[in-house]
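Task: sequence design from structure.
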């Protein structure tokens, strides 16, 4: 666990608590994220924890915001910088490879018991739908609105299903499935038309 923290020595002391939480979440048990465990992993006192977050629930809210930004908005901003649809797909493939899918699977499990985490997961899914629908609309410009909704549903199900089934191989599974799916789309070749990624959302 300490090696995870040591590897990100450049981050702020507040962020180190988030990294510690993701390391604990990676073991699959949200209940392991206690104040004692976080402080022990970071190598700090409980006074430091309360200084940064005020309470356990304050930390959960901050973690939910941090996870949303890391897992969703970063990828959305990358897609928005693409100058073509194919470039957007390349950026998304890279984002999928860098996603910590085992942490996302744990967040979904945690969402069953935490309204705060459930809201973060709901917003993440909604945001991903917007980005995916935009890119699919560029790839299949003749698709109807209902067809695009169905295509987006399939992409979302692939993403969530791969994480739930085998998070360690989720990146390979998702990218392979999405490449096969895109090859089946009735698309006009839109190499030059970049997707219009929706503007970033702020967590409420």
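Answer:
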């Amino acid at each position: 666990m300490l090696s995870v923290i040591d590897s990100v020595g450049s981050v702020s002391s507040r962020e180190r608590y988030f990294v510690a939480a993701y390391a604990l979440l990676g073991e699959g048990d949200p209940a392991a994220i206690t104040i004692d465990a976080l402080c022990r992993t970071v190598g700090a006192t409980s006074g430091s924890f309360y200084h940064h977050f005020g309470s356990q629930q304050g930390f959960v809210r901050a973690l939910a915001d941090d996870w949303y930004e890391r897992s969703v908005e970063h990828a959305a901003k990358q897609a928005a910088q693409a100058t073509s649809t194919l470039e957007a797909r390349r950026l998304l493939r890279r984002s999928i490879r860098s996603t910590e899918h085992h942490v996302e699977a744990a967040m979904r499990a945690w969402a069953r018991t935490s309204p705060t985490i459930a809201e973060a997961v709901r917003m993440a899914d909604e945001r991903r739908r917007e980005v995916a629908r935009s890119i699919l609309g560029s790839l299949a410009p003749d698709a109807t609105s209902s067809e695009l909704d169905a295509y987006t549903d399939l992409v979302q199900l692939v993403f969530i299903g791969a994480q739930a089934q085998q998070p360690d191989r989720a990146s390979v599974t998702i990218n392979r499935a999405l490449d096969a799916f895109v090859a089946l789309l009735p698309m006009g070749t839109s190499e030059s038309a970049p997707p219009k990624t929706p503007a970033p959302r702020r967590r409420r």
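Residues 67-204 form one domain.
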